[in-house]
Amino acid sequence: MLRYIVSVFLLFSVIRGFSQTDTARVRPPKPPKVKKELKEFMPTGVRFGADLYSFSRNLWDESKTLTEFQLDVDFRHYLLVLEYGTSKIEEIEEGFSYTSNGSYIRIGPEVNVLYDPSSLHVVSLGLRYGSSTFDDQLIYNTEDAFGNTLIAVSNEKAKAQWAEFTLGTKAHLWKGLFMGFTLRYKFLKSVQFNELEPHWLPGFGENRADDNNQFGFSYYLAWRFGIRKKVDKSVITIEK
Amino acid sequence: MECPIRKRVRSRVVNKLAILFTFIGIITCDPNELCFTDNDTRVKISFKRIIYSNTDSSFLENDTLIFSRITALGTDSIFVESDTLSTVVLPVNTGVNFTVFLFDSNQGSDTLELSYKTISRLISVECGPEQIIEDLEAGVFTFDSLGILNTALLEQVITNVEVYR
Fold it and tell me: Is some CB atom of chain A closer than 8 A to the CB atom of B119?
């Protein structure tokens, strides 16, 4: 009896094993949907540029020393943009002097509204988050009923934050060389300060009490470094 | 699938637009500088007489006082001399964060200490700096009672402090 039971058990095991192998053979391979979608978001290039407008401003406005650099990662329809800059202001006039020294970053996405796979030109709309840290100082004289008073007020490591809407272009001129501008509408300004309301916010510009918004302009000269795609044989086989 | 001619036209339009936008000159002009602001460094004090008062409401009328003089500690200036007034506008000392005013009137001699926060700012390079006085508070005083109606010193504010008798 025991021999009979063992034989039946072994027979079922073999049949079950065969049936599993058959199922595996006939099941079609899953389409590589995930990999295909991911491919769209793989970076195709990195552009590094300098803002000529900031650099040129030093020539015609001696009170301001500005630098700005831009790095963007190209994801076909989309770009991720990082900007870094420094700002040094020295306004010395009769009766007062104002100095400010700081740096800033801006980061945000852009969408290439005229994306064309056959062209590297970019016309983009974007958003930015901006943040700056700076020291500033104002020294001035007051003359009133209480006499002449020299007032010196300053901020150390003051912070400012804001948001931006951007409209920009990057025209492909030659090989990896690009030139383009970015127009900015800066809003949602927030400034932390003590007894001196900062006059200049690095990356934002003039801090007007009566206007929380500001327009900005950058003119970039950039070089694009293409990211060569790694050939993934498994993906190619499956796509066939 | 996109038609090759259409694709080529689209590509040309993209190229031309990109280059056109890139070489457009941006002409900007600075807005006219307005040096006038609403900030003030003078405090406006009104004198009131309480006619009727209970927990819900009070009725006040202007209290006209005959001042022989009004001065402040830290200055030789006399702000008011031999005048009959129910409201006075007095400068605060912006070099420090408080001012003590001395009132000599037909009601006797009184003092009033006001403290505040001073913020400096540059209106613009053309207009120069200005001071913003805010968070006005009453310190030591010898009047019967008083109230702070507006804590910011602004041109448009009619009364900052009301002194009651």
Answer: yes
